[in-house]
Amino acid sequence: MEPLLQIRDIQASFPSAEGRLRALNGVSLDLYQGRIFGLIGETGSGKSVLGLSIPGLLPDSAEVSGSIRFKGQELLKLHRTRLRQLRGSEIAFIPQNPATSLNPVLTIGYQLKEAIARHRSRSSRSGKSLTEQAAELLDSLHMPEPERKLRSYPFQLSGGMKQRVLAAIGMCGHPSLVIADEPTKGLDALVRAQTVEMMRSVVRQTGAAMLVITHDLHVAEALCDEIGVMYGGRIVEQGPVGELFRQPKHPYTQGLLGSMPGRGMVPIPGAAYNPADPGAGCAFVTRCRHRRAECESAVPELYPVTDPGMSTLAGTVGPASADPVRSGFEAAATAKVRCFLYAPDSRTEQDLPQRLAE
Ligand SMILES: Nc1ncnc2c1ncn2[C@@H]1O[C@H](COP(=O)(O)OP(=O)(O)OP(=O)(O)O)[C@@H](O)[C@H]1O
Ligand code: NI
């Protein structure tokens, strides 16, 4: 399958009093239609900058290089006007804070109908009124009493409902790519679960590709097909969701998952990545228990982990995913890890599994 979006070696930096802040240090990523890709990682790892770079929403001060190809178009070279058109139609960006993204003085119905009207091809085809279409859209996102909600103002809606309104606005243009930054932030457990369900149904109904940025590892596990773990402006591990959560391979991923409630809640010791001083080697080197001399001076590649012996490292092995779509995808994708422990010449070392499980 051809990827819908191909990101290659994206670098992004910002000017600051301390010199350039290196937010992204070479990220490559493929997104496929009908698939949800999750980005996880500590604060400051570059998740939002990556998400914003795709629809061209980084501030002008940002210096961005690399390539972002969407349906054959190079987005980094696209004219502003064309990018804005794409954002309103084929690429939907659901921002971090739904509360501030809706206009407080306009009704939900007004804002949703305005979005539908902007995509006239849809309204002229169906012959339905804008109000009917708006209610249908909310209904398809499992919004209770959709007609009544159209007459409400944003403050009258819960966080989860506002999230659904924003998703509905984003879906008006029939996007083939949806980017959501922290879609469950500040939501209680029930609304969080509803949001996960809503987002999965958006992907099922539209066949869109989705990029989800989240701090909530449980949401990532429940929602995504594939996961990229970011640290220091790079993806340090990438793989099918089940495998990644069952058998985290990168020392950073193991630390990150170990900080989850239910998995020990042990924070990773040491200071997080400093974008003003990225260093010459692996960004995690100062915090890593497995560091070697070479980790200080060179950045490891993303090594595919294909040796079956390599997938029985630390972590308990659970049953394979019961979802046939997911397990099919898992079988197709391979985990990749940016760590010298996984370099081909390290794989011959007999003691590796033991060293990692220490
Ligand atoms: N507009 C900006 N100007 C200057 N620096 C920025 C800007 N946006 C992001 N950065 C810096 O880039 C780095 C990556 O930030 P980013 O917001 O992508 O992190 P994140 O992984 O999304 O973190 P969080 O989980 O807290 O949202 C940080 O060091 C941040 O301070
Ligand atoms: Ni962020």
What does this structure look like?
- The chain is an alpha/beta fold and 358 residues long.
- It folds into 2 domains: 219 residues, 3-Layer(aba) Sandwich (Rossmann fold), CATH 3.40.50.300; 124 residues, no CATH class.
- An 8-stranded mixed beta sheet has the order 6-7-8-3-9-10-12-11, sandwiched between helices. It has a 4-stranded antiparallel beta sheet with strand order 2-1-4-5, covered by helices on one side.
- α4 packs across α6 and α4 packs parallel to α8.
- It starts with a strand and ends with a helix.
- The site of adenosine-5'-triphosphate has 14 residues, from β2 and α1.
What's the helix and strand layout?
Layout: E1 5-14, E2 21-31, E3 36-40, H1 47-53, E4 63-70, E5 73-74, H2 80-88, E6 91-94, H3 98-101, H4 108-118, H5 120-126, H6 130-140, H7 146-150, H8 159-171, E7 177-181, H9 189-206, E8 209-213, H10 217-223, E9 226-231, E10 234-240, H11 241-246, H12 251-258, H13 293-297, E11 303-304, H14 324-332, E12 336-337, H15 352-357
Helix pairs in contact: 4-6, 4-8, 8-9
This protein binds adenosine-5'-triphosphate and nickel (II) ion (NI).
What is the β-strand count? 12
Q: How many discrete domains? A: 2
Class derived from helix and strand content: alpha/beta
Spatial shape? globular
Average pLDDT metric: 86
Q: Using the CA coordinates, give the radius of gyration.
A: 21 Å
List of distinct ligands in this structure: adenosine-5'-triphosphate, nickel (II) ion
- The named CATH superfamily of the largest domain: P-loop containing nucleotide triphosphate hydrolases
Which CATH C-level class of the largest domain is it? Alpha Beta
